[in-house]
Amino acid sequence: MASLAGKHAFVTGGATGIGLACAQALHAAGAQVTLAGRNATALQAAAGASMGWVCCDVSDPPAVQAALAAAAERSGRIDILVNNAGQAASAPFLKTDGALWQRMLDVNLGGVFHCSQAALPGMLAAGWGRIVNIASTAGLTGYRYVAAYCAAKHGVVGLTRALALEVAAQGVTVNAVCPGFTDTAIVAEAVANIVQTTGRTTEQARASLAAANPQQRLVTPDEVAHTVLWLCQDAAAAINGQSIAVAGGEVM
Ligand code: NAI
Predict the structure, then answer these.
(1) Overall fold of domain 8-180+220-244
(2) Where are the domains positioned within the chain?
(3) 182 CA distance to ligand 1 centroid (A)?
């Protein structure tokens, strides 16, 4: 793939899982990378000597503005924004209280809104930009017991489509990547939850999630990152407003 040398990427939730895989792929392609998240120790360890990092909670608009401004100071602007930070709390619909509902919307959807508002002006001024939102197959179809998460991720897909049209003629593309069950901490938590509520073994719980994927396996973080990297290339300039499932054919 072509080099991203000279580009600066800002990856939210970048210290772990899919976010870290995206950051490493972008960095390997030559981009300068800033990781953003809530845990300074985890960020520092993930960034090592070659990437920058900044603390922020993506659901806190002033913190997001300050973090993007601090990151932009490193190179003058943000060229690539990967909106990856997310949480996937589960509960049956009638046990989904207002606090859980609000948290899912604030982090998964509000975070994309706040970070995109902060990063977009610099991209428009430069006439080049990439916003890649890590949504989910839960943004394209329904799943039991995650109504709030599903609603938020469907919102991310809608926001992606609307913003993509607004900026289409200005050198900026906005796309969503929609992973199926991917082998990260989020799936580990889901597995623990299944074990606790159903009495299944860990292996059985993992297999039940993998069974949703026609390839009968969990997606890897690197597979998601590869799609993000492709969308950030000049060669992908005509891909805009899309929500691309990385899920072995689970949704089509
Ligand atoms: P993860 O738990 O390793 O990553 C989520 C990251 O977001 C963590 O670093 C976490 O600290 C950070 N984060 C959470 N709330 C935050 C907040 N308020 N402000 C800043 N950072 C925050 O799990 P994973 O799987 O890597 O998740 C990354 C994204 O992928 C999420 O948006 C998730 O919804 C999405 N996804 C994951 C799937 C999976 O099966 N693992 C499937 C589909 C989508």
Answers:
(1) Rossmann fold (3.40.50)
(2) 8-180+220-244, 181-218
(3) 11
Q: What is the pLDDT of residues 17-46, one digit of tens each?
A: 999 999 999 999 999 999 999 999 999 999
The ligand 1 atom nearest the CA atom of 135: 44
User: Which residue has the CA at smallest separation from atom 16 of ligand 1?
Assistant: 85
- The three-state DSSP-derived secondary structure of the chain is CCCCCCCEEEEECCCCHHHHHHHHHHHHCCCEEEEEECCHHHHHHHHCCCCEEEECCCCCHHHHHHHHHHHHHHHCCCCEEEECCCCCCCECHHHCCHHHHHHHHHHHHHHHHHHHHHHHHHHHHHCCEEEEEECCHHHCCCCCCEHHHHHHHHHHHHHHHHHHHHHHHHCEEEEEEEECCECCHHHHHHHHHHHHHHCCCHHHHHHHHHCCCCCCCCECHHHHHHHHHHHHCHHHCCCCCCEEEECCCCCC
What is the torsion angle, in degrees rounded to the nearest 10, for the CA atoms of residue 218, residue 151, residue 113 and residue 13? -30
**For ligand 1, what atom is nearest to the CA of residue 15?**
9
Taking the CA of residue 179 as reference, the ligand 1 atom at the shortest distance is: 43
Would you say residue 1 has pLDDT above 90? no
Q: Which residues line ligand 1 (CB under 6 A)?
A: 12-13, 15-19, 37-38, 57-59, 84-88, 107, 134, 136, 179, 181-182, 184-187
What confidence tens digit (pLDDT) does each residue in 79-127 have? 999 999 999 999 999 999 999 999 999 999 999 999 999 999 999 999 9
- The best mutation among 20, 22, 43, 87 to test binding of ligand 1, ranked by most ligand atoms within 8 Å of the C-beta, falls on 87
